[in-house]
Amino acid sequence: MIVLKSPDEIEKMRRAGAVVAGAHKMIAEAVKPGVTTIELDQIAAEYIASQGAKAAFLGYNGFPASICASVNEEVVHGIPGDRVLVEGDIVGVDIGSLLDGYYGDCAYTLRVGDVSDEANLLLDVTQRALVKGIEQAKPGNFLQDISHAVQQEVEASGLAVVRQLVGHGIGRKMHEDPQVPNYGKPGRGVMLQEGMVLAIEPMVNVGTIDVRVLDDEWTVVTKDGSLSAHFEHTVAIRSDGPDILTLQ
Ligand code: MG
Q1: How far apart are CA 36 and CA 30, in angstroms?
Q2: End-to-end CA distance of the chain
Q3: Cα 202 to ligand 1 centre (Å)
Q4: How much of the chain, in percent, has pLDDT values that exceed 90?
Q5: Residue 104 domain flag
Q6: What CATH number does the domain containing 59 carry?
Q7: Is residue 73 very low, low, confident or very high in pLDDT (cuts 50, 70, 90)?
Q8: Separation of 163 CA from ligand 1 center, angstroms?
Q9: How far is the CA of 173 from the centre of ligand 1 (A)?
Q10: Bond from prior residue into 178 cis (ω within 30 degrees of 0)
Q11: How many domains does the chain have?
Q12: Of 50, 115, 146, 186, which residue is 20 to 30 A from 33 by alpha carbon distance?
């Protein structure tokens, strides 16, 4: 069941989203060679608490940290720890917040210093795919118009969209209906209507689409060890089009 949000609820979600955006801003400034992923986690945790919000991922199904930090071949759900980031790494940072009963969810993949041409292409394409998907998030379109736009942008550059993980509705719960795949056919799926709020989140691999979960039972990696990137925004569907809620 898809829960529609009133304009008032959307404004509450925008405040939760702004907290996530603020944490991302601080992390983007902190990411450089020599920093550990647990240091990034602490920066986000302190900022989120300072805003009177809760880190949504901490304790979610037992997840042990405030953010997900996924390095290089890690796709999503990486657990922050004492891993030191080095020049040339890419790190996907996913942050969720809970404020006043509503969730915000947003991810960026960041460059650690200078990165390879392959990594630059991957990040540019994945971010562009998110933009293309968001552009389709308007009333009267269909859910898979978003999916198709993402997939088309990714595959045009010879990269691969992950199938096993998808975006989601979001609101009073972090994960609501509908699922938002990053692949699909135009005109399929539910019709989009005003008040739907979706977390749109392309996950893109340089190599094959296949992924597996590490023994820590969280970290998702590419099966072939190729690089992976992840970008995400929480987006409300409004009468005049998409409204990105995870901005400052
Ligand atoms: Mg999400």
Answers
A1: 10
A2: 30
A3: 10
A4: 100
A5: yes
A6: 3.90.230.10
A7: very high
A8: 14
A9: 11
A10: yes
A11: 1
A12: 50
Q: Does 1 map to a domain? A: no
Whole-model pTM: value is 0.98
pLDDT score at 226: 98
CA 78–ligand 1 middle distance (angstroms): 14
CA of 30 to the centre of ligand 1 (A): 23
Q: Classify residue 156: in a domain, yes or no.
A: yes
**What is the distance in A from the centroid of ligand 1 to the CA of 96?**
8
pLDDT of residue 187: 98
- Would 2 be classed as within a structural domain? no
Output the average pLDDT for the chain: 98
Structural domain harbouring 212: 7-244
Q: If you measure from the C-alpha of residue 112 to the centroid of ligand 1, how many angstroms do you get, rounded to a whole number?
A: 23
DSSP character string of 39-106? HHHHHHHHHHHHTT-EETTTTGGG--SSEEEEETTEEE-PPP-SPBP-TT-EEEEEEEEEETTEEEEE
